[in-house]
Amino acid sequence: MIENNELTMNTESRLSFEEFRKEVLADYRLACESREVSLLARKEVLTGKAKFGIFGDGKEVAQIAMAKYFQPGDFRSGYYRDQTFAFATGIATPEQFFSQMYADPDLANEPFSGGRQMNSHFSTPNLAKDGNWLDLTSIKNTATDMSPTAAQMPRALGLAFASKLFRNVEVLKEFTKLSNNGNEICFATIGDASTSEGHFWETMNAAGVLQVPLAVFVWDDGYGISVPRKYQTTKDSISAALEGFRKSEDSNGFDIYKVKGWDYAAMCETFEAGIRKIRETHTPALFHVEEMTQPQGHSTSGSHERYKTKDRLAWEKEFDCNHQMRQWILENALSDEATLLSVEAEAKTVAQDARKNAWEKYINPVRQHVQQMLSHGEAVAGLPDVDNGRIRTLLHDLQVNREPLRRDILKTAATILFTHKRVKAPEMDALRTYYEDLLARERNNYNSLLYAEGVNAVSSVQAEPAVYANDAVSLNGYEILNKYFDQLIENNPRVFAFGEDVGKIGDVNQGFAGLQQKHGTDRIFDTGIRELTIMGQGIGMALRGLRPIAEIQYLDYLIYGLQPLSDDVASLQYRTKGMQYCPIIVRTRGHRLEGIWHSGSPMSMILGSLRGMNVCVPRNMVQAAGMYNTLLAANEPALVIESLNGYRLKEKMPQNLGSFKVQLGVPEVVHEGSDITIVSYGSTLRIIEEAIQSLERMGISCELVDVQTLLPFDINHQILESLKKTNRILFVDEDVPGGGTAYMFQQVMELQGGYKWLDVAPRTLSAQAHRPAYGSDGDYFSKPNVEDVIRVVMEMVEE
């Protein structure tokens, strides 16, 4: 006789098994759908409908297993083979995947970048247009993908580090929409060959030191494009190479797990236990997923048959993860052959429908514009004074184009308009209006949102002048900053400051002196000498709603951290079409100092690589404080370069130090004059001011303009107004020839039309082309000096 409780247990067991069976079949279904998407997508590239393709085939089962433990609030920082993970988590659909392949500019169809990024580059929003952060704890989040290998690693550290802060810093407990007590994990994925990059090693080292909830999944298919793993990795295994980093009872470090990429059951079991431990203890972990395959090779630009042996290709066919999962399902009687065949057939239909729907959504608006263009073109072709034959040939070529691009329509219209400029008729006017409207619309589709708009933009922040008491005290510049940062940390719980020597000694120039002792090691803290991941920490924190001030000790060393700032931060607004925000503030110091490595001013490098960030070059520390206030009132990223030789110069202390704001992009005339306009910024202003005193004794009146910010630059064209008065202009800075001075020259002469107001040729005065030499004489001969300024101004006035 069966007891009631035994019957209940058997019933529950059967139900549990049935639920398990359904889950396994659903996982297999998704694996098949993703594989079919990859196969179809490759064909779309080879037929020309899509430009390029890189796919996640061979990684399906591992990513499905991983996705089971990815919860709302977690963040993904992955690479471009994570399509199955995106499907499994609901971040993307197959149809959206194809829309991205076709570069559909409509965010309703391609919600990750509006056609600006290649396939498998996913995004989720983090900040609303009204300036409020979304409830990130209810979203399965992904930081926007990048193609540079291992570029996802530094920010992964920051995304995980934010969880540590949310769990440990009491003042952050109120921000319940940003974190659930720091329970969030960052899931980072990377190809095995990319673990050779320095980004990977610096990130893993920092994660082991900091003890943050970072789960790193290495997809190991044995190759880096065509280069076998043995030429890439010590001991031919990344997990073996990292054994010294393994965490023990009496050390920091991280856990290391090894699984086979075709073993569904083992991956589910390993990932479940490993992820639970990360979530509970914030111990980072590396999951080395071995024996993966890449059935279609690296990408559509090559064939893996060229570099893989027949034995390897045969092995890959046998140990393909989908094939192995199928065998496991049958061996464990979780389904029968007929059911699996049905699942596989349905998967083909799902992929085909996704491709078809995405293509129709992409091509139909283009075809509608083709018809409109043909209508306008036919009307123009019927005019008496036009080249009817040529116009109809152009229209025919457009009409028979089965896969027209927007550019084909615009080129057709432009050709007709350019070759018939003298024809005056309503039909020609209608074509011109159509062309200009379509051109403006498409330019907006592809060229907008490099910077934020609306309340999130620095341009929306109103200036607030500094207010001084009659008896305002004068303090050293570093003391002004110290008092400012003290107020800032006290009043804004989301602000954190960190970098090399920022914590205990209060930074090398004492801007944070004593503040760690006052506000705690969680708010102001030291890091290792690792500029790349200092930037990564700041990026991840900013993506999660914090306001990090991440310090690069000297401007010369910005280049160590430049890649994530350029490829990630600066392009973020653009490549997500305004959907994702990263309001990091990078604080550094530079310009004049007597040493080859601590006196750099590589502004052309910065201006060329950081379009999309604000670049502030304050002449003193009061101005710097006003710029920090402005930046913290908006949600845009910025680089603030303080003047290295200005920390011990006296400045008056404003009464409203914590609230006054310097409007970015608005220059300031710091010395009025009538004979010549001199444009500069930062430490060089003091050189010019000394020169001006001598020039005025010679009867030459100079107007000195401090640009204050290089990005944005003189948004109201105030420099032009000065030039209209003086009719002479000289641009001076400490960058190499053709660098920052050439940039300012182009902005004023070309964009502002300054050439119209010149009486003499404009000039630039820069540093020498080499690194500045050591010592006082080295500084004098390497960079613009007082006598250089006097000589050039005299030449221009006498010309």
TrEMBL record:
Spans through the membrane: none
Annotated signal peptide: none
Keywords: Oxidoreductase, Thiamine pyrophosphate
Cofactor: thiamine diphosphate
Domain Transketolase-like pyrimidine-binding, first and last residues per copy: 475-649
EC id: 1.2.4.4
Enzyme class: oxidoreductase
Function: E1 component of the 2-oxoglutarate dehydrogenase (OGDH) complex which catalyzes the decarboxylation of 2-oxoglutarate, the first step in the conversion of 2-oxoglutarate to succinyl-CoA and CO(2).
Protein name: 3-methyl-2-oxobutanoate dehydrogenase (2-methylpropanoyl-transferring)
Organism of this sequence: Chitinophaga rhizophila
Source species taxonomy: Bacteria, Pseudomonadati, Bacteroidota, Chitinophagia, Chitinophagales
